[in-house]
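Known limitations

Files may contain more than one protein. Parsers should not assume a single record per file. Below, a two-record file is shown to illustrate correct handling: read the sequence, read the token line, then continue until end of file.
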Amino acid sequence: MRQRTGQEVDDDFRGFMTSRWSRLLRAAYLLTGNHHDAEDLTQAAFARAYAKWERVDNSDNPDAYMWRILVHTNADRLRRTRLRELLTAHIPDRATVDGTGRIETRSILVEALARLPRRQRTVIVLCYFEDMSHAQAAEVLGTKATTVRSQVARALAKLRVDGALTSAQAPTAPASPPLDDETPGPPAAECAKPHDSAVTRSRPEPPSSPRPGRSRPPSTPNPPEASDTSKAVTA
């Protein structure tokens, strides 16, 4: 077998990295929760792969080898930053809301993933975002498929009761019912009829304008009716 030159090795690695960069960067974003750490994690993983490229390239499954490097690099990153980072339920680096529901939903999902333990978050990303089977994820993580299945079940159970996710998926609340002292009125079509509306019947009619050329005397109240006693005296 002919020994490859350094330029050929670099070209092979460059082609491998270019074709897989976007997919690994997306997975790194889901693992870290922000774009800056995702780019650093992806670059560090490819740097490790380049240092052992002959082993990666000659393996039975270079993609699985690369996924394993990414997962292990992320675990090392968390171990190094555990003492100098404050763990909190509120993520300080939140994506700016741009007004679209898709970006908002993605931000809520990423924050929910960040609240999972590292192992559970990793299996969710591999199985549900990268469409790996439990056996493939187990090969990447160096564990058994039953362990992956158990971690997935625990992670899904936590996501189902996550308050942010359940609030985002809750339907819009219906209109509040009328109060006890309020009676629902008739339909709009019936309200438009004057003879069916109590409000319309009690509304005073506006005075009609006098005809031009004729004066209208002011209206005088009718005199009160004479009492029975007055009628008797007159008689």
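...continuing to the second record:
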Amino acid sequence: MNRAETEIRDLAEKLAPALIAIPGCAALTAAKTLGETADITRFRSAAAYARHNGTAPLPVWSSNRARHRLSRTGNRQLNAALHRIAMPQTRCHQPAKDLITRRRNSGDGGLEALRILKRRLSDVVYRAYAPTVCPRLDRGAIYSPPPSRRRRPRRGSTAGRRRWPGIRGRRPARPPA
């Protein structure tokens, strides 16, 4: 058993050294994610990878309160590997502990905070694969919030018009000449 484990460790360190550098990710977990992911280039973004491994949040509404729940779809083996990375981080890795504490203090439950941590770890694992395949991806802060989305210009009949104050925001009628 030890010989097989050292062989797996050597292969995992050779193929994805950045993956083993993630706190809580051992050689067997790295090998499992390598095998289940197969080829990172099939995913066009970290969000597509999160959808594949089942950590993308699903919006649900209950009593006029929007929230997210854990997705039960996706690759369950890959989700279990992310869970094996997340559990030691909740005990030993300070940024993950801070994230869990912050989410619990803001009103989320323990499972909701763990879901958020697993989603962030999915992005970290994606970025750990990506530099060898796609160097344009940077390795930003692990637990920083995602960048704000750029607002698109309005479309439709009022897209380029200036809005005027008054009744229904329309321009006042011109007096007859």
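Parsers that stop after the first record will miss the second one. For reference, the second record is described as follows. The chain is about 50% helix and 5% strand.
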